[in-house]
Write a structure and sequence with these properties.
Layout: H1 19-33, H2 39-48, H3 63-84
Length: 88
């Protein structure tokens, strides 16, 4: 499938994702699909692949940064939903 995200047309966001957030999400998807799930290993793969952290703006990944970036993304999307509603 060329664009696996095309099937998510019924899913809405209250704000557009940044290019860095999209790259982060795609990298995580590839890592998880390869069977890696441990945060230490995920962080190592992100660093090895040079994925830039959307908030911290660097690629020196460790488990604490991974948790912070995921939490920040969730907070930001929750705030957008609260402010604009789903699909606004």
């Amino acid at each position: 499938m060329r664009d696996p995200w095309s099937r998510l047309k019924t899913q809405s966001l209250a704000r557009e994702l940044t290019a860095d957030e999209i790259a982060f999400a795609q990298a995580l998807e590839e890592i998880f699909m390869s069977g890696v799930a441990d945060f230490d290993d995920v962080a190592r793969r992100l660093a090895d692949n040079g994925v830039v952290a959307p908030i911290a703006r660097h690629s020196l990944w460790d488990p604490a940064l991974l948790e912070a970036e995921l939490s920040a993304a969730n907070r930001s999307l929750d705030q957008a939903y609260a402010r604009y509603g789903i699909g606004a």
